[in-house]
Amino acid sequence: MPYRLLIIFVFCCFTNTLFSQSDWNAITVVGNKTELKSISKSKLKRIFKGYESRWNNDNEIIVVLHSSKSPTCEIMAQTIFGSSMKTVKRYWLNLVFQGRANPPVFLDDNLEILNYVKSHPGAIGILVNYSGATEYQINLE
Model-level pTM? Predict the structure, then answer.
C-alpha cells in the first residue's frame, strides 16, 4: 500500500512539472503605440494580469489574449499566468466584476490577435509559436 501512494505521488509531481513549465521561447509579444522596444517578463506579467492600465504615453492598455478555442491557449496561460486557461478566465472575470480592470479581448488565433493589435493603439498581445516577422514585435528581455 505505501508503494502505491509513493508511485502516485511521484507521478503527480512529474506530470505537474511536465505540464506546468512556461515556454518563453514560444512567445512573441506584439504591441501598437506602446512605446516599448523591449519588455521584461515580470513587466509583461503585470500588464497581462491587469496591474497596469495605462502606458507611459497615456494610451489605455488593451490586453489581447488567446481564447479557449485557440489550440495554443494553454501555452499562453501557463507561460504568462502559471495556470490553466480556465483559471485565467476566472481571474479576469473577477477583476472586471470588481471594477479593477477593463476586460481583455479574447481572440482565436495568432492572425486575429496580430490584426487586432495593428488596428488598436495601446493594444498588446501574445503570439504563440509564431514564425513570421512583424513591425509590432516587442522584444523580451
Answer: 0.81
